[in-house]
């Protein structure tokens, strides 16, 4: 077989431009690559024959350049080990001044993270996931290794349709499911498909959700949230509202479910106006005092978009989420997603499909429910013993709890939490700036985030940050 550049060894990109001949340009390119750090000390270079073939120049030119750079100290050459970048002594630099310690001599970086949004990633089922990946790869058709379609792998969409119907009461068929690279991508696609107008959002929620809506060209209008969830009856008085983004099963972050009357009001508004409810079911599988309430989508699949994700049940790193769309949104969303929108990896989709169909997903969820419920119970018990004046509001669900505080104390307690090495958010962090001012003081404590081995220390630090009882 005739030699080809494709059969040679290590690749090395060099730009042989500039004044002088090929030898001069090669010397300059190699010196620049070493000087800039692109070729680190100890890096093995291609053989002179291989590099000459890659660059289309004579082998003697490369050999001469290597020899000169060895003599200058840029490269080293030993019998049997090839030509390498020399282990050069780097110029002495002035070390950066150490950061000043935080209060009470503590480092600025928190020891414990209690900010919401992430599950206990140390509990990711690595062994079961790896087994599912092996089975999925063995059974995968060859076309699965090509470019995926905008709606996602059919294996995953079929499994999702069955699972969502069984576990969340969602009415769907695989043709109306679109797999996304995370919830944020799904929300962005939906907002762009809706076009112009405004989108109603809950008065407590995530600022980056509102930012996604704004980038899509839609305005937002807040729906006030109280102990019965978002006041969806107020939708009828809002003009130019195309859709409403709600968290019906477990309002984020206040932790209350949407009252049945308000669920009905939201659906009735959508039917009367032709609008849509965007149902963010971010942690709907995690309820501890009873069976989870079924998804709002089950009341009217033609007007409710169901959005789910593996970020809370498994891990955010998977970048897997899904939308169950009304028929009239399927084509507009796929048209947008097919124009170069980022696609989720087909192999991860196949693995999740196998993970779910094998029963491993249900087993993992049952185990995590027990773990998170135990942590929530420990938090509630610790507060009852050491800070009875601080009570937990909302339902027993999800991965976070809301701790109600005495009026006017939220910011001082957050400062105390920083002294204790805690990363912690107050409820005010999630209030929509466009909503009327609120006097409610509370902490949003993500008990689902820390790993088990550190949870006792987390509770101790949290209790030290809370005000003493009367």
Short overview:
The protein is an alpha/beta fold and 470 residues long.
Parts with pLDDT < 50 across at least 5 consecutive residues = 1-8, 89-107
Total helical segments: 13
As a percent range, the share of helical residues equals 25-40%
- Beta-strand portion reads 5-15%
Let me know the largest β-sheet.
7 strands, mixed
Sketch the topology as an H/E string, one letter per element: HHHEEEHHEHEHEEEEHEEEHHHEEHEEEH
Q: What is the alpha-carbon Rg in Å? A: 29 Å
Number of β-strand runs: 17
Terminal Cα span: 88 Å
Name the shape in a single word: globular
Mean pLDDT: 90
Backbone structural class: alpha/beta
Strand arrangement across the biggest beta sheet: 4-12-11-10-9-5-6
Structure in words:
There is one protein chain. The chain has 470 residues and is α/β, with parallel strands linked by helices. The protein is built from 13 helices and 17 strands. The protein has helices at residues 22-35, 48-55, 59-72, 126-139, 154-168, 183-194, 207-215, 260-273, 327-337, 346-357, 360-386, 410-419, 455-465; strands spanning 75-78, 82-85, 112-113, 177-180, 198-202, 219-223, 225-226, 229-230, 241-246, 276-280, 304-309, 321-324, 391-393, 401-404, 422-423, 425-426, 442-445. Strands 4-12-11-10-9-5-6 form a 7-stranded mixed β-sheet, sandwiched between helices. Strand 7 (225-226) and strand 8 form a beta hairpin. Helix 2 (48-55) packs across helix 3 (59-72), helix 4 (126-139) packs across helix 10 (346-357) and helix 6 packs parallel to helix 7. The chain starts with 21 loop residues before the first helix and ends in a 5-residue tail after the last helix. Mean pLDDT is 90; it is low at 1-8 and 89-107.
């Amino acid at each position: 077989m005739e030699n080809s550049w494709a059969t040679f060894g290590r690749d090395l990109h060099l730009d042989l431009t500039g004044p002088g001949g090929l030898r001069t340009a090669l010397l300059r390119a190699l010196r620049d690559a070493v000087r800039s750090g692109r070729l680190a000390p100890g890096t093995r270079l291609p053989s002179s024959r291989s590099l000459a073939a890659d660059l289309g120049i004579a082998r003697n030119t490369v050999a001469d350049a290597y020899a000169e750079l060895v003599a200058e100290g840029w490269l080293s050459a030993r019998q049997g080990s090839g030509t390498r970048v020399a282990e050069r002594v780097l110029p002495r630099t002035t070390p950066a001044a150490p950061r000043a310690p935080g209060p009470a001599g503590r480092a600025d970086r928190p020891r414990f993270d209690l900010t919401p949004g992430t599950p206990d990633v140390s509990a990711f089922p690595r062994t079961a996931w790896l087994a599912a990946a092996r089975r999925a790869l063995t059974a995968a058709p060859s076309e699965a290794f090509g470019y995926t379609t905008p709606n996602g792998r059919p294996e995953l969409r079929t499994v999702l349709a069955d699972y969502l119907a069984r576990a969340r009461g969602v009415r769907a068929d695989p043709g109306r499911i679109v797999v996304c690279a995370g919830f944020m991508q799904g929300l962005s696609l939906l907002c762009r498909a809706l076009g112009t107008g405004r989108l109603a959002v809950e008065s407590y929620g995530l600022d980056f959700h509102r930012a996604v809506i704004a980038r899509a060209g839609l305005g937002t209008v807040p729906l006030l949230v109280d102990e019965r969830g978002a006041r969806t009856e107020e939708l009828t008085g809002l003009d130019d509202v195309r859709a409403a983004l709600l968290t019906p099963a477990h309002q984020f972050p206040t932790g209350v479910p949407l009252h049945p009357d308000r669920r009905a009001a939201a659906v009735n508004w959508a039917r009367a106006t032709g609008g849509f409810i965007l149902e963010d079911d971010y942690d709907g599988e995690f309820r501890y005092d009873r069976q989870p309430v079924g998804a709002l989508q089950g009341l009217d699949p033609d007007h409710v978009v169901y959005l789910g994700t593996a970020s809370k049940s498994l891990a955010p790193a998977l970048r897997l989420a899904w939308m169950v769309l009304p028929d009239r949104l399927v084509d507009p969303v796929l048209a947008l997603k097919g124009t170069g929108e980022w696609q989720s990896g087909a192999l991860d989709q196949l693995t999740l499909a196998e993970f779910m169909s094998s029963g491993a997903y249900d087993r993992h969820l049952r185990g995590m429910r027990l773990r998170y419920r135990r942590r929530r119970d420990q938090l509630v018990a610790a507060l009852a013993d050491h800070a009875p004046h601080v009570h937990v509001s909302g339902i027993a669900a999800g991965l976070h709890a809301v701790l109600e505080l005495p009026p006017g104390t939220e910011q001082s307690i957050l400062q105390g939490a920083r002294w204790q090495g805690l990363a912690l958010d107050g409820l005010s962090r999630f209030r929509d700036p466009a909503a009327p001012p609120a006097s409610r003081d509370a902490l949003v404590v993500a008990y689902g985030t820390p790993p088990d081995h550190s949870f006792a220390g987390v509770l101790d630090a949290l209790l030290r940050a809370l005000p003493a009882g009367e």
